[in-house]
Structure formats: C-alpha cells, structure tokens
Amino acid sequence: MSTMVEGLPVAQETEVTAKAARRRFTAAEKLRVLREADRCTKPGELSALLRREGLYSSHLSTWRAARSRSELAGLSPRRRGPKAKPVDPRDKKIAELERQTRRLQARLERAEGLIKLQEQVAAILSEPLTDEERV
C-alpha cells in the first residue's frame, strides 16, 4: 500500500522481523510454572496459565515427568546436539608424541639428504670423504 505525498505515490516501509530464537527455561522458571499449574483447580485456569506463559501442554507434561523422577537435569535447559566427549590426557600425550615423531622424522630425512649431497659432491670432485668428514 502506498500513500500520496504532494501528489506522488510513496511506498511505505515494511518491517522485517528477525528469526525467532528458541526459548530456554531455567529450572527455577520451570518449577515456578509447575507450582502455579498445581494450584489451578477451576476449569480454564490451566489453559489461561499456558496462554499467559506462552507454553504448550506438552511442556507441562515433560516437566512434570522430570519432576516425578527427581531429575534435576530434566528441569534445567539442555544443549542440543551430540554430547561432548571428555578429552583423555593419554590421547593428548599420544598426539603430542606423534607430532614430535613426525618433526624428528622430517629432520632425519633432511640430514640424510645433506649427507647424500655431500657424497655426490665428493664423488664429482673425485675426493671420497673420510669417516671423520662425514660426521
């Protein structure tokens, strides 16, 4: 829809809303809502509570089940995705030793290459290296 300014049509600005973020509830918030839900005795009170809090009945079902199992973790927000595996200190040590082995192997190959180069230079000059010169 456009408006007219001095006889010319002007487009109205439209607001673009950001993508909604997933809501997270703390254990205290969950317990507060559960206590309020437990106090609802008259018809319609529970649905009014759910509308006011912006919740679904499945939230209450899940939170009640967690409360009945005495799962404190069930009443705290959980991160989505796979669980992080604890890092074993032995794995760190193994990785460090493998890096050190690769570094020393590369150094050894460089040294062997230099020795071969020295032997080739000596062969070109027709002066073979003695054992003392090789070291």
Q: Overall mean pLDDT score? A: 83
Helix content: 40-55%
Strand fraction equals 5-15%
Q: Any low-confidence stretches, pLDDT <50, length ≥5?
A: none
Major beta-sheet overview = 2 strands, antiparallel
Order of helices and strands: EEHHHHH
Please state the CA-atom Rg, rounded to the nearest Å: 37 Å
What is the overall silhouette? elongated
Question: How many helical elements?
Answer: 5
In whole angstroms, how far apart are the ends? 89 Å
How many E-type strands?
2
Strand order of the largest sheet: 1-2
How does the SSE layout of this entry go?
Blueprint: E1 2-5, E2 8-11, H1 27-39, H2 45-53, H3 57-68, H4 89-124, H5 131-134
Antiparallel strand pairs: 1-2
